[in-house]
Every structure is written in structure tokens, then in C-alpha cells.
Amino acid sequence: MMLKSMNVHFQQLFLNKKRTLGQLILVGASISLIGCKTLNNSKLNKTINQKISSRTTNNYFQGILIYDPVKKDTVYSHNSQKYFTPASNTKIITLYTSLKTLPEKIPSLKYIVKNDTLYMEGTGDPTLLHPYFGDSTAIKFAMNYKNVSLYLNNFEESRYGPGWAWEDYDLYFSPERNGLPLYGNVVTITNNDSLAVSPTYFKNQVVPISYGVNRELYSNTFYYDPQRRDTLESPFMIDSTLTKSLLEEALLKKVNVVQKMPNDEKQILYSVASDSLYKRMMEVSDNFLAEQLLILSSSTLSDTLNSAKARNYILDNYLQELEQPPRWVDGSGLSRYNLFTPGTMVYVLNKMYQEIPRERLFNFFPVGGLSGTLKGRFNGDDRPYIYAKTGSLGNNYCLSGYLITRSGKTLIFSFMNNHFTKSNSEVKQHMESIFEMIRDNY
Q1: pTM for this model (two decimals)
Q2: Is the per-residue pLDDT at 23 higher than 80?
Q3: Distance (Å) of CA 55 to CA 52, 289, 426
Q4: Which end of the chain is more exposed for a tag (fewer CB within 10 A), N or C?
Q5: Angstrom distance (rounded) from CA 315 to CA 29
Q6: How far is it, in rounded angstroms, from Cα 60 to Cα 48?
Q7: How far is CA 363 from CA 132, 276, 278, 367, in A?
Q8: How far is 226 from 349, CA to CA, in rounded Å?
Q9: CA–CA distance, 332 with 282 (Å, rounded to integer)
């Protein structure tokens, strides 16, 4: 009996020590985002494991991290420290960069006024005469001055990002980057009984025939099938002469291109609400807005427009504690050179969740079953449960964001799929079954 009593005593001591150890682990997890993996629902985890390792999914690469920001605890993890091609999930870190560097309204121009001359340089603001935003703040401002001088040499960046697919040059989602974008850097062509071309500068450069491409590779010659009735958007090639001409057409006056700005202190002209750009970028996954937002961010750090300045600034000042620093080369995710882990995505999402009011933050993201790139997928039965950013390239599909469970808890997740040969639809269906399981059981 004494031996049995001693056994009971030692078992109780062991349990007490184990309980104390568990508390220490939870405290440690609050310091490190990922922390130690704690299985709050072993049956749920077992079911997810079975789905992840099923015969239909074991021939491509999957990475998942699901995190509870209130408990500061990992709900589920699989390959969460492995690197993946994120595609447009990259826009999540572009959003974070913008929120950290840009004011409430977009800086549209930097300028100096001397006598009757306006000297101005671009900041990368993508909204000027953009087909969606249609902003004309800078145009109206410049019209007030007799003489306008334009400085273009502050842009120190290539027109395309590293690793972009060259054959996308004529497609709407791949406009060139520059310091003073106009019209979204695309030609918009519609056919309502007659061709309407915007900007009108290109009207005589549109050939009304059916052709294999929308634009010539090395010239601004565009093709539009007169039988089609939908709108065509195709990027135009940019140089200083074209920017000058487009600006002169909009201002109805001559513009002088100068080689340097005066030495006086520069003023800043502001345009649209910054949140309107963020929402549009995230909701429809707009690559052009994402790229220009990084350039805009660099304009707040120096007078040189270069997206690498913005990327390095954020990594060095706000994300220096990342356990798996990303390979981050552009703002949009068009490049396959980008490499992020699910852990990094969740880290950034959690920082935004802690720092930004929930209503404002969730408003930036597509909503499952309701809006943007999630309109046709990840529906809630009676209310939305997914607020997340998609990322899609050939053979890759990623989704990262926020999941609301039926019990009212908010979880942060990143689910990355690379190198599959099946259809995107099958991969999404597989993901949806896992999300619904978590929604209904956590």
C-alpha cells in the first residue's frame, strides 16, 4: 500500500511539473509567433493530417500554418517553415509596407514653384487618370501655372520586375513601372459602334484586325478585333517623350523636360485616400497598383524612386525578427523568384491584426463567396468566414488571411500549394474541405 501511495505521490508531482512546463511553453509562444505546436483538438489535427497526406495530394508540395492570435498558439502546422512561390500572396507584405510608410492620402507629386514655373517630379502615384480611379488632382494643380517643367530622372528602377514572364508584355496585368504613371500605363479600347481609345493619343495606333497579340513587342502598335464587344486593356511602352506628350495632351499646354530640379525645398501634393488603393490592389489582385505602391513607399524614404529601398526598409525595421527571411523581389508576386514561408505570411498577417483596427483591416481583403478574387469560392453558409488574399501562377495556388470559426474565434492562416499538375479547382476544393473542418470544429 505504501508503494502504491508513493507512486500516486510521484505521479501527482509529475503532473504538476508537466502543467508548469505547459504554462512556460505558452509564455514562450507569446514571444515567438510560431512557438511550440500545441494540439488543441487532436481529432481535428488527425483529420487534417489524413487529408494532407492523401493519395490525391501527396505528389505536390503543401505548406500550412494556422495560428490563434488570442492564445498565441499554433493550431496546425505542416511544412510551415519551408519556402514556397507565393504568387500574389506577395501583395500582403506590399500592403504592410504601404501601411507603414504612406500617409492617409497618396503623395501625388513633389514640386517646387519658382516665379511662374511649376517644377514637378513623380512619386509613382498610379491613380493619375487611371481607368478605375480617374484622379486628376495633379492635372488640375498643374493647370494653374503658366509654365510646367517635368523631371523624370528620379526613377531608378527597371520597367519590369526580375523574373517576370516576357510574353506577358501585351496583357493587362503586366504594365510597365515608372515614376509618373498616366492612365494606369495601359491603352483601353472599347467598341460601341465605333472604336473608343483612351488615351486618345493612341487612337491612330490601333489596327482594327484580329491578331495573335494585343500589341507589337517593341512598339506602341495595338490590335483590336472589330468583332469583339468587350473592353481591351493593353500596356503601352513608356519613355520620356511619350510621358511628355501624354501630359501635354492632358494639360493642353507645352511641358518642358528638365535634367534637374531646383535646389529649393520640395512640397508634396496629395491625391486620393490611400485605403482606396489598398482595397483595390487586394480585392482584384492588381499587379500595377502593387508595384507602384512599393515605388510610392520609396518616395517617402528619399527622392529616389526604387522599390528595393522600400523592401529593404521594411525588412530591416519592421520584420527583422522573421525566422525565415523571404526572398522578396517585387510588389505584385508576378515573379517566380519570390520565396516566402507560410510562417512568414502568418507573421505579417498577425502584425497587421495586432496593429490595425479589425474592420479597416478586413475591408482590404477579398471576402469568401462575396467579393474580388474569392467571389466564387470559400462561401460561408450564413455569413462569410474567409477574408484572404489569393496567389495564383501556373501550377501554384496560395491563400493567406483570416478565418472566422463558428464559435466566433479568429484564426490567421497561410495555405500554400506549389507544383501541382491538377486543376486549380481541385486544389481549391481540397483546401475548402480543410477550412470548413477548422471553421466547424475549433
Answers
A1: 0.89
A2: no
A3: 9, 40, 14
A4: N
A5: 22
A6: 16
A7: 18, 10, 10, 9
A8: 46
A9: 10
| Locus of grid cell 523624370 | 152
Residue 169 has pLDDT above 70, yes or no: yes
State whether residue 365 is helix, strand or coil. coil
**Residue-by-residue DSSP string for 190-213:** EEESEEEEESGGGGGGEE-S--SS
Secondary structure E strands in 352-395: 386-393
Query: Residues 80, 341: contact at Cβ < 8 Å?
Result: yes
**Cβ count near 195 (within 10 Å):** 14
Q: Give me the amino acid identity at 331.
A: G
C-alpha cell at 258: 528638365
| Residue 256 near residue 243 (C-beta atoms within 8 A) | no
Q: Which of 321, 340, 347, 339 is nearest to 413 (CA)?
A: 347
Model pLDDT for residues 280-298, shown as the tens digit of each residue = 999 999 999 999 999 999 9
3-state SS, residue 412: strand
What number of other Cβ atoms are within 10 A of residue 308's Cβ?
A: 14
Residue/partner pairs of 53-56 with CB below 8 Å, 24 or more apart: 56/422, 56/426, 56/430
Task: Give yes or no for a contact between 310 and 102, defined as CB atoms under 8 angstroms apart.
Answer: no
Strands (E), 208-276: 222-223, 232-235, 255-258, 267-273
- pLDDT tens digits, one per residue of 362-404: 999 999 999 999 998 999 888 999 999 999 999 999 999 999 9
Query: Which residue type occupies 189?
Result: I
What are the φ/ψ torsions at residue 138 (nearest 5 degrees)? -70, -35
* Interior/surface letters 376-389, b for 16+ CB within 10 angstroms, e for the rest: ebbbbeeebbbbbb
Compute the distance between CA of residue 33 and CA of residue 152 in angstroms, rounded to an integer. Answer: 43
Alpha helices in 285-423 (DSSP H): 287-299, 307-317, 342-355, 358-364
Cβ proximity of 209 and 222 under 8 Å: no
Burial class (CB in 10 A: 0-12, 13-18, 19+), 264: exposed
Angstrom distance (rounded) from CA 98 to CA 276: 12
The string of pLDDT tens digits covering residues 216-268 is: 999 999 999 999 989 999 999 999 999 999 999 999 999 999 999 999 999 99
For residue 64, give the C-alpha cell. 500550412
Instruction: Name the residue with cell 475591408.
Output: 363
